[in-house]
Amino acid sequence: MNNPDQPVIPEHTLDRDCTTLSRHVLQQFPSFSAEAQDISAIMNRIALAAKLISRRLSRAGLMAGTLGFTGETNVQGESVKKMDVYANEVFISVFKQSGLVCRLASEEMEKPYYIPENCPIGRYTLLYDPIDGSSNVDINLNVGSIFSLRQQEGNDLNAEARDLLQDGHKQIGAGYVLYGPSTVLVYSLGQGVHSFILDPSLGEFILAEENITLPAHGPVYSVNEGNYWQWSESIREYIRYVHRHEGYTARYSGALVGDFHRILLQGGVFLYPGTVKKPEGKLRLLYESAPLAFLVEQAKGRASTGFQDLLDIVPDKLHARSPLIIGSTEDVQLVESFIQDWTRRVSEQTAVTSS
Ligand code: P6P
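Above: inputs. Below: predicted complex with 6-O-phosphono-alpha-D-fructofuranose.
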């Protein structure tokens, strides 16, 4: 009999608070198979990494030696932030002695990191950008972690990880953590995109939204217009179009995860095109563009290089880069139409001048 003086907690609230990430992952599988248990355990480790990084970020300004640069340069030729190193080491630590992940491939490491005690058993590779947008760390703006999960194929005896040089459709799952006013984890295992919010009082990621889908069009275009004169004319034509037409608004944070999260929830398009000098662009394929492309397609959006679907790209090296146009289908197609029209005009002019 309910005590009238006691508040009745609606079942859905209690049940919702108990829909933790690991439980939600298990629900993605038809049975509690060994694979389901492995993937659930892997996601739980990623969640632990996210909690450790979130905790460090929330105290970064108060702890000596947390902010600023290490003085080193990474394989990308970028100055390394202390937070990059910490976050990279967190991912390594949470997977040691796990029997789950044999290899870790990170933006911060030239070669994959092997965890030998896991390798005969753990047949998974985690690819990740431990801190995406680290230029935002010292100014307390949002940053993120991006991850992609692939099955290890073969024994990789010469430790060259050539089996990772395959297209994005080979991903088993992908996701990101957004360290913002709250810490949000978004993931997909190929059955929709789902978001979780870290409840610090519980130390658990609690289900926030299931089966997130983008609208076919959104008002936001997200691009660093400081690169305007480095782009090809087709991209400049697209930018002039959205400048001239009502209904568009620019948003750009300098951190891919935050900019993508806005597009995922509100629609629109994020672009990091190539430039004339660097046609491959800046973003890394295997642990930045491809995981987000996996998510956006699961959310009924699109991801393209401007010339082909992003998930079809086969990298030639671990740290390969690719141009990225990602978001609502209509907005991605609009950008592609400018590229295709311009390419057609150029080839027609070439044909005329050479005839
Ligand atoms: P730019 C961060 O360094 C990053 O890799 C992405 O997170 C972000 O979208 C992009 O680079 C920002 O690059 O050239 O606009 O500063």
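The pocket of 6-O-phosphono-alpha-D-fructofuranose is lined by residues 132-133, 135, 224, 254-256, 282-283 (CB under 6 Å).
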